[in-house]
Amino acid sequence: MIEDWKSYEPLLIPDIPNLHKIDVYEENDGYSALRTVLNDQEKWSRTDVTNEVKAANIRGRGGAGFNAGLKWSFMPEPDDRPRYLACNGDESEPGTFKDRNIFEFNPHIFIEGALIAAYAMSVDTIYVYIRGEYIDWVHILEQAVEEAYDRGYLGKDILGKGIDIDLHVTYGAGAYICGEETGMLESLEGKRGYPRVKPPFPAQKGLWGNPTTINNIETLANVPLVINNGAEWYQSIGAEGHNGPVLYGISGHVNKPGVYEYPAGMSVEDLIYEVAGGIRGGKKLKALIPGGTSTPVLRADQLEGVSMDSNSLRDAGSMMGTAGMVVMDEDTDMVDLLWRISHFFHHESCGQCTPCREGTGWLEKVLLKIKNGEGEIKDLDLLLDVTTQMEGRTICALADAAAWPVRHTINRFRDEFEARCKKSVHAVA
Length: 429
Ligand SMILES: Cc1cc2nc3c(=O)[nH]c(=O)nc-3n(C[C@H](O)[C@H](O)[C@H](O)COP(=O)(O)O)c2cc1C
Ligand code: SF4
Fold this sequence. Notes:
The chain is of the alpha/beta class. The chain has 3 domains: 5-234, Rossmann fold (3-Layer(aba) Sandwich); 237-329, Ubiquitin-like (UB roll), CATH 3.10.20; 334-428, NADH-ubiquinone oxidoreductase 51kDa subunit, iron-sulphur binding domain (de novo design (two linked rop proteins), Up-down Bundle). It is built from 18 helices and 11 strands. Strands 8-7-11-9-10 form a 5-stranded mixed beta sheet, sandwiched between helices. Strand 2, helix 7 (135-150) and strand 3 (166-171) form a beta-alpha-beta unit. Helix 16 runs antiparallel to helix 17 (398-412) and helix 17 (398-412) packs across helix 18 (414-428).
């Protein structure tokens, strides 16, 4: 649990006016990590950079929390094929809206991180994939990329150090499935965003069949911090096993929703009551979805002493996900909430796998029945059974992401679901 958070100074998005402009970024030490690496490639060999990032244990901020440096080390030795870094800014899961702030307020820290990652993996081309609804942020990033080309940080012979790296910004058309890494690769190739069967994994066979690594925007924004300050320093921020700064996206029934940067491991209570100004209208907390709608909901009585890091949330029965916290007050209708979440996943299923295509449809349909007062108790068991038929049986994790909220919300708020069913039986009778 982080005690001294009030004195924390943001690292990913410092409070510096116009930091999105390259002059201001450079005045504030911007691109110094890239210079450090490229100016001394003997000290900072590609392997050294990867090892430093691995030792720092930057946990992927796209949801799965995988060690970024370790992922980079899965890239095969360079051969005559092109190599790619695909940066995931699709950010489509309800409750998740933090990469947007990096694009808006500090795009160069992300570009710098992506360049260092590209250097470490001998990548020559970087793609950034952004959700289509973020068109304003696409333009902000494009402007930053243009500035970086003009200053010699991108393109041929970067900083005169014999390294060539290009970066292309592209955007989707608003499909959540294009955030799944292989769905994103398909979309980047100009095809329908159908996730691919793995193996082969993208490091072996990614974009156009070539070695590719996929990282989230916030993950890459952490990289310059590690190069400038070292893995040990990075490890000293945050919680045991979950280091570094985190962009917490807090939404729902709080007085001050927004994106707030603090170390990993902040107490849920501090985040809700101090940082986000407490519950609207002085109401009581009922529940929290900690990391985007695919992460299991927790009841207020499960949150005592819980902090926002993977170990604490696992022990409490949930996951860190993207740290997109959805706060719900005592008036929240959990049946309504769950139906709304299930509607989203049904709508976003790409339809390739039967358990997902049919399962998400069934979940939504049965929940709508319960929501409309036409459900029976046995429907709850049917819903739980459908979730077990979906989990772990599909090409990608969207089916799991759809199944978990249903299972946990029903199990953790069973009374509420039963009451709705019973009421309906009376009403019908
Ligand atoms: C259905 C689905 C949607 C996803 N959407 C995103 C997304 O919008 N952004 C993201 O970074 N990761 C998303 N992911 C996770 C990515 O597949 C991948 O794990 C991540 O981009 C890797 O980056 P990281 O290791 O830096 O976190 C999604 C996964 C699934 C299954
Ligand atoms: S699990 Fe769902 S979203 Fe993922 S590939 Fe299968 S049908 Fe498509």
